[in-house]
Write a structure and sequence with these properties.
The complex is a heterodimer of chains A (295) and B (168). Chain A is mainly alpha-helical and 295 residues long. Chain A has one domain. In chain A, 74% of the residues lie in helices and 4% in strands. In chain A, strands 1-2 form a two-stranded antiparallel ribbon. Chain A has a two-stranded antiparallel ribbon with strand order 3-4. In chain A, a hairpin with a 2-residue loop joins β3 and β4 (143-144). In chain B, α2 (11-143) packs antiparallel against α3 (149-167). The relative contact order of chain B is 0.03. Chain B has three helices and no strands. Chain B has one domain (2-167). Chain B has 168 residues and is mainly α. Chain B is rod-shaped, with a radius of gyration of 62 Å. Chain B starts with a helix and ends with a helix.
Chain lengths: 295, 168
């Protein structure tokens, strides 16, 4: 079975009527049989009931690599910078400048910087690790041992949840719990109706709508997680499928331009994920009233 | 939930990935970004401090230069004044000394003149006496027999009168 013949829909049909562990086993069986790229990360081995997937192993490699990089940076950080430190400083300063374009406030940028920058680095390293030769091809016992960390929806979902929950916590810290709560369940708008109804009769129509808009905001938070995670997963997974397909057709030379393309895609996707996270952070830290005032 | 199964979504794996990310977040922040930002901030502070110091040093230097210039001018003026004063004092001293010297010279000259006069007077008296004696002796010897005492005295007086006349 070639890569181009891999059909996710086929998996769904095969898995109909199966749930939980059965589904996982079926999925694993399917993957074992095909030896090709699957939509899901393949479990390589189990620790108890915990499946250690190939993408999780790659993520560990990424974590190890980032830890190593951090320690090197820590060791090399001096008052008079070396060439290496200068490059890192240029990256950090550039990232902060770019964040200022979104937040318009250096202090806010500095507060969001640790999470946003970590997301960028984590996604970037995972994206690029997926491109390292051997990552998608080394197999053991019929399983691919490695798979790009971000080519697994579990990773991108985890990152998406972390980003959105982080943005909400940041929002609560910035504008206060009551203010932030009213962004979603706008009790303030409801309480305003009896107070201002005689002065502004239109409030009886506007404020219930405002209340419902707040409820829609809750759905939009979930949508943020979905959009972040599926975008990243889709792009990285598509890139891996593209590279595998091209490699399967012509192994020598031809995949090279696509490889470069994926290197760029890796950076762009990491950047998009980080910038969107920053946008969510900025929106969350802006008070609801000032949003209306701007509108 | 079928779609989640299709993508192999597993809450345990998600949790593991969140844990992975948390480790990365902690390590990257604690070991890399935080010290780096701290160093950058310290350096920026040092640079701006250095620039401020350099500016204030330049300002101070300018002020000191101005001060030095003003003081030099003042000192020059003062020195000129002192020089002028010294010159006039010296002139005064010179005049004084000159006057004093003149007076002293005059006094010495006067004294010498007086002394000479006195000496002269004394010499004249002595010479007159000597001459009178000599004359008397000579006359006595020459005219001892023919000239009387009266004529003798008359001659002496005549001679003395002539002497006085000559002296004048």
């Amino acid at each position: 079975m070639s890569v181009t013949e891999t059909n996710p829909n086929l998996n769904i049909e095969n898995m109909e009527g199966l749930t939980g562990h059965d589904t996982e086993a079926a999925v694993e069986h399917e993957a074992k049989e095909s030896h090709e790229i699957t939509l899901f990360a393949e479990p390589v081995f189990h620790i108890g009931s915990f499946p250690v997937t190939n993408s999780l192993i790659t993520s560990w490699v990424a974590v190890f690599f980032i830890i190593l990089l951090s320690l090197v940076i820590r060791k090399k950080t001096k008052r008079i910078p070396s060439a290496f430190q200068s490059i890192v400083e240029i990256v950090v300063e550039g990232a902060l400048d770019m964040m200022d374009l979104v937040t318009n406030d250096r202090e806010k940028s500095k507060k969001a910087f640790p999470i946003v920058f970590t997301i960028f680095v984590f996604v970037l390293v995972n994206n690029w690790l997926g491109l390292v030769p051997g990552i998608g091809s080394v197999s053991f016992d019929g399983h691919h041992i490695f798979r790009g960390g971000t080519a697994d929806l579990n990773t991108t979902l985890a990152l998406g949840i972390f980003a959105v929950v982080g943005a909400n916590i940041f929002g609560v810290m910035s504008v206060g719990l009551w203010e932030y709560f009213n962004k979603f369940i706008n009790i303030k708008a409801l309480l305003e109706i009896p107070k201002k109804v005689f002065k502004e009769p239109t409030i009886i129509l506007v404020n219930p709508i405002t209340f419902f808009v707040g409820l829609i905001e809750i759905i939009s938070e979930v949508a943020k997680i979905a959009s972040l995670s599926f975008r990243l997963f889709g792009n990285v997974f598509a890139g891996e499928v593209l590279l595998s397909s091209i490699s399967a057709m012509v192994a020598w030379g031809v995949p090279l331009p696509f490889m470069f393309l994926e290197v760029i895609v890796g950076v762009i996707q990491a950047l998009i994920f980080a910038v969107l996270t920053l946008v969510y952070f900025t929106i969350a830290s802006t008070s609801h009233d000032s949003e209306h005032a701007h509108a | 939930m079928e779609i989640l199964n299709l993508f192999g979504v597993n809450w345990k794996l998600m949790l593991a990935q969140i844990f992975n990310f948390a480790i990365v977040f902690f390590v990257l922040w604690h070991f890399a970004i935080k010290p780096l930002l701290k160093t950058m901030e310290a350096r920026n502070k040092e640079i701006s401090q250095g620039l401020d110091d350099a500016k204030s040093a330049a300002d101070r230097l300018e002020a000191v230069e101005k001060d030095v210039k003003a003081k030099l001018q003042e000192a020059k003026k003062e020195s000129m004044l002192i020089l002028e004063k010294a010159n006039s004092q010296a002139e005064l001293n010179r005049q004084e000394s000159l006057a004093k010297a003149k007076l002293e010279v005059e006094q010495v000259v006067n004294k010498a003149k007086l002394h000479i006069e006195q000496e002269k007077e004394k010499m004249f008296v002595e010479a007159k006496q000597e001459f009178a004696n000599l004359l008397q002796t000579s006359l006595t010897k020459v005219l001892s027999k023919s000239v009387s005492q009266e004529i003798d005295k008359k001659y002496i007086h005549q001679t003395l009168a002539d002497l006085k006349k000559n002296e004048k």
